[in-house]
Design goal:
alpha+beta, OB fold (Dihydrolipoamide Acetyltransferase, E2P), Chloramphenicol Acetyltransferase, 3 domains, 32% helix
């Protein structure tokens, strides 16, 4: 019995998806619930599980195609044995031929290679020049390939650098996530009056507190005590004092959110994601650290959901983990502000008329100047600074 595999129901607000990879090829056996393909939406990657065990008989949609809910993707033959007939192999090679750039095509033609037999490493299933070279090195020698190899064995005549061949290029389409990120950033900059204010914070007290309790914290809660939980807690305290920073603009209205859903930026190979800690004001330090660790793991394995990324009233991003000393983050619209963390650096500062060395971090708050005045933004950032330099304030709420 043949069973059709169709695009699953896409999440609300998502109109289509891109088929970015087939995990199985025609003629291969599949098991029930095994992932057959990956569908990329604007925010997340969805898996297409096999509803039955059998053989993937036919692939209807090729990699890179845009698809909608219910669209036919493939056909599985239930209970059939896997076969690798010449016809099946030829069909697969014909329908699943990866794309190759000019340099890669030249290597393929010179070595009489079959593009469908080359493992593609570039995004979108694209064959690179190195992929083609690796396939040529492992392929049996042919007369044409032997001639090329013989010619290559002859020492080349030195050529002046100015006369060398042109440099190769590759054109790779943006992933849907990268395109969505670009769209959101442009939208934020074109619809909000963004301005950034800076300050610096002495993290001596936070570092000493972490050093004192990190072992017992991890033993009790099963998660490491990081810096982010301190910044989330400090941000919530500042948001309570300056509610407009936690607000958003809708048409000519200001919407004041009486809850604190904090987005924490997570960097992945696919791009930046900002999962949201719901009701973060009710979370303990351990809850915050566990939530962030869970989101980071799921984001990097493409198992995060749209619900995890939706909403948020304020965001935090940490460029310091990559070595950034100072930056101007862009607000995650429709949110009106974002906090930027940076690299912790030992720097000389003046305390009590003495020059001392302290672990310092530059902080940045980018805010929508349409509703947030400079006074409020500066005082908001100073509140975060005060809470971090004296963490007892976070416990006492002062």
């Amino acid at each position: 019995m043949s069973v059709e595999i169709r695009v699953p129901q896409l999440p609300e607000s998502v109109s289509d998806a891109t088929l970015v990879a087939w995990r199985k090829q025609a003629g291969q056996p599949v098991s029930r619930d095994e992932n057959l393909a990956d569908l990329e939406t604007d925010k997340v990657v969805l898996e297409v599980p096999a509803p039955i065990s059998g053989v993937l008989r036919e692939i209807k949609v090729q990699t890179g195609t845009s698809v909608k809910s219910g669209e036919l993707l493939a056909v599985i033959e239930e209970g059939a044995a896997a076969t690798t007939t010449t016809a099946t192999t030829a069909k697969t090679a014909t329908t699943a031929t990866p794309r190759a750039g000019p340099a890669a095509r030249r290597v393929i033609e010179e070595n009489n290679l079959v593009p469908g037999s080359i493992a593609a490493s570039a995004p979108g299933g694209r064959i690179t020049k190195n992929d083609a070279r690796a396939a040529a090195a492992s392929a049996p020698a042919t007369p044409a390939a032997a001639a090329v190899a013989a010619a290559a064995a002859v020492p080349p005549v030195p050529v002046p650098p100015i006369a060398r061949a042109g440099r190769a290029e590759q054109r790779v389409p943006m992933t849907r996530l990268r395109a969505r990120i670009a769209e959101r950033l442009i939208q934020a900059q074109s619809t909000q009056a963004l301005l950034t204010t800076f300050n610096e914070v002495d993290l001596t007290a936070v570092q000493e507190l972490r050093a004192r309790y990190k072992d017992s914290f991890e033993k009790k809660h099963g998660v490491k005590l990081g810096f982010m939980s301190f910044f989330v807690k400090a941000s919530i305290e500042a948001l309570k004092r300056f509610p407009v920073v936690n607000a958003s603009v809708e048409n000519n209205d200001i919407i004041y959110h009486e809850y604190f859903d904090i987005g924490v930026a997570v960097s992945t190979e696919r791009g930046l994601m900002v999962p949201v800690l719901r009701d973060a004001d009710a979370m303990s330090f351990a809850d915050i650290e566990s939530g962030i660790a869970n989101y980071a793991a799921r984001a990097r394995t493409a198992s995060i959901t749209i619900e995890d990324l939706t909403g948020g009233t304020f965001s935090i991003t940490n460029g310091g983990i990559f070595g950034s000393l100072m930056s101007t983050p862009i607000a995650n619209a429709p949110q009106s502000a974002i906090l930027g963390m940076h690299k912790i650096q030992q720097r000389p500062i003046v305390m009590n008329d003495q020059i001392v060395i302290r672990p310092m971090m530059y902080l940045a708050v980018t805010y929508d100047h349409r509703i947030i005045d400079g006074r409020e933004a500066v005082q908001f950032l100073v509140t975060i600074k005060d809470c971090l330099e004296d963490p007892g304030r976070l416990l006492l709420g002062v």
